[in-house]
């Protein structure tokens, strides 16, 4: 009996770990500042709220802290803190439902107590405004990863957009010396370095500089969809050799190479309406989301099948191994996702499809959350 009692904590630990589903990228907080919605309650729009999260088995969410490139010195850092304040307010309103966590131990404790484990990912190095002390401040508030660039480059790292569109006019490519100092500082703080959105030169500079495993919080496979935001085979292999993880994005344009052409024709047809919606929301993504919802009969046929998203997951697993793939939905940050993926309630559909093509429960558990927990612990030390 004593031997059985000694073994029970281990059994619970293994069982709890298998129940953890982590999504590394959701943009609801920047939207919430505009819509003023209470995402603790069931919403009739958007992709996320705590009610649907529970339905989908989501018990660990990295909330994206984001603002566009129009925010610069003096405004970007303030916007980051406004969004973090919003998350803190949500936690204060629903303390039994959601709690802030900073490491894998706290994450597992939250899951054990049936709370969503909330984490913070800052999407865009421009939000630190070139200041190391701002990195320290955001880390103290709970930042678990920093996406080194958004679409816009910083003064110390070039983005995928600028390395492809503006390569010949850029003053530099990749990480500057100050950028390398930032990478080292993030390593020292235990903050994960996110290479989604960065250019190839920046990516390889990070690989050469970081002393800890890195992540791509919301990216897909370039071979299946040659979008600049997706990772090429060589990049995926380098990331795996680094011990990192790529978290697969659900956005239709990153999943389906034919989507952009169809979407472009749709937007040209409804340009005036989109402009009117932008006047209301002052946000291009929200305006686009609303437009897609208004014309669902036109936009649903443009969405890729769920099987194509699963194909990205399967392709990356076969290329670099089961230990280096996870889920980074980009929910509430895009206007279109594969058919059947309408909210955080729908995650089980992905894992059902993986099971159908032969993935074991053990492998699915790694994709769901095990790989994230490993890379988080490798960075934080606990």
Describe this protein with a few key phrases.
single chain; 382 residues; alpha/beta; TIM Barrel; six-stranded parallel beta sheet; 9 strands; disordered N terminus
Characterise the protein shown here.
The relative contact order is 0.14. Strands 1, 2, 3, 4, 5 and 6 form a six-stranded parallel β-sheet that branches. This protein has a three-stranded parallel β-sheet with strand order 7-8-9. Mean pLDDT is 94; it is low at 1-17. It has a single domain, classed as Metal-dependent hydrolases (TIM Barrel, Alpha-Beta Barrel). It has helices at 2-18, 28-35, 50-55, 76-93, 104-112, 132-140, 160-165, 177-189, 200-209, 233-241, 252-255, 259-269, 271-281, 284-294, 296-299, 306-320, 347-356, 361-380; strands spanning 22-26, 60-66, 98-100, 116-123, 143-147, 192-194, 215-216, 245-248, 325-327. With 382 residues, it is of the alpha/beta class. Helix 16 crosses helix 17. It is built from 18 helices and nine strands. The protein is globular.
């Amino acid at each position: 009996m004593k031997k059985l009692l000694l073994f029970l904590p281990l059994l619970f630990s293994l069982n709890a770990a298998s129940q953890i589903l982590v999504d590394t990228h959701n943009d609801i907080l920047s939207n919430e500042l505009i819509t003023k919605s209470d995402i603790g309650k069931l919403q009739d729009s958007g992709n996320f709220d705590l009610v649907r999260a529970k339905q989908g088995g989501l018990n660990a969410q990295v909330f994206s802290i984001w603002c566009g490139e129009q925010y610069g010195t003096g405004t970007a850092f303030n916007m980051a803190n406004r969004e973090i304040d919003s998350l803190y307010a949500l936690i204060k309103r629903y303390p039994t439902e959601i709690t802030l966590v900073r490491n894998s131990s706290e994450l597992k404790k939250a899951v054990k107590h049936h709370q969503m484990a909330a984490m913070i990912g800052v999407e865009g190095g421009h939000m630190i405004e070139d200041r190391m002390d701002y990195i320290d401040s955001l880390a103290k508030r709970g930042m678990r990863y920093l996406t080194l660039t958004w679409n816009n480059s910083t003064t110390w790292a070039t983005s995928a957009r600028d390395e492809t569109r503006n390569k010949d006019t850029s003053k530099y490519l990749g990480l500057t010396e100050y950028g390398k100092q930032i990478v080292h500082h993030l390593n020292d703080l235990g903050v994960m370095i996110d290479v989604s959105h960065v250019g190839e030169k920046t990516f390889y500079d990070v690989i050469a500089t970081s002393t800890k495993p890195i992540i791509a919080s919301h990216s897909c496979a370039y071979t299946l969809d040659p979008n600049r935001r997706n990772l090429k085979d060589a990049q995926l292999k380098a990331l795996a050799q680094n011990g990192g993880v790529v978290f697969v994005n659900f956005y239709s344009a990153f999943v389906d190479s034919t989507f952009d052409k169809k979407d472009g024709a749709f937007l040209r047809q409804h340009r005036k309406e989109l402009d009117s919606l932008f006047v209301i929301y002052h946000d291009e993504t929200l305006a686009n989301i609303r437009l897609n919802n208004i014309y669902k009969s036109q936009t649903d046929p443009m969405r890729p099948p769920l099987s194509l998203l699963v194909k990205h997951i399967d392709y990356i697993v076969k290329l670099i191994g089961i230990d280096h793939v996870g889920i980074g939905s980009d929910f509430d940050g895009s206007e279109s996702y594969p058919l059947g993926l309408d909210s955080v309630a729908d995650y089980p559909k992905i894992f059902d499809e993986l099971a159908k093509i032969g993935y074991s429960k053990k492998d699915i558990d790694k994709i769901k959350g095990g790989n994230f927990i490993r890379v988080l612990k490798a960075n934080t030390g606990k």
